[in-house]
Amino acid sequence: MSPRLSGSTVAKFDNSTRQLKYQHVYDLILNLIEDEGLKPGDKLPSTSELAEMSKVSVISVRRALDELTYAGRIIRHQGVGTFVAPERLVSEPTHSGTLLDTILDSEPGLNFETKLLSIQVGFPSAAHAKALEIETGQPVWEVVRLRSLELKPKVLEQAVLPLSRVASLDEKRLAAGESLYRLLEERFNLTDAFVEQTIKVDQPTQWECTNLGVTTKDVVVRIRGVSFSEDGIPFDSYQQTYRARDFVFYVTGSQHPTLLKPSEARRWTITPLGHPDEEKISPLTN
To answer: Beta strand pairing status for 89-91 and 103-104?
Structure first.
């Protein structure tokens, strides 16, 4: 059975505001999910029910549902109904180790499939050469892999490593999805002691569209960084492109965060106490 809007949820969204009608429905549905504690897979009210609840046209409701579907918040199955979408994966990109090691609160059995798209030797761009502190004429490895989950592409990875520090690579192990850094540590004693990264939300390139299954209207999160060994030598200039709507990115300056768990960072709002007189500054009374 679909949930009904509580009186408090309806009260938050008085349709007399100047808000566009579909935005009114968009926010109303998000608050319904939050206020009713709906979980992934729970069914939402029908289009006609939402139109009646929000006092707007079916056209406005459908526009809101389209936007929520595009944003990855709901899933619609024709002839069945509309449901709360699965939670996004929470990634901590600064965490060392395999890709799975960077996914927080991962479910047991969660496993990324790996496809090795290419492995080749070439010459670095000026940007890669600067990051790796080498000359543009020095050869480098380029390793490109695509990570998928349940047959859906999630992350496109590119690693650039100088041959002067990484003389050889095991193609079979990389194709099997093993951690590149684990291989580098085993063979060359290179450990990613620390990294420098930039995180950018951007439109995907055509290459990223082709491999990640997104369109130029979508957005991706592109992480570019450099890994340094314990003695401060850069040995990997990398790029990771994520389907933005499938992930939440979590960064902490402490190994023992106490503020909140990523899964708890939902709506950051308050519930007003009421409507105090305009002359009063503090809601506290003597």
So the answer is: antiparallel
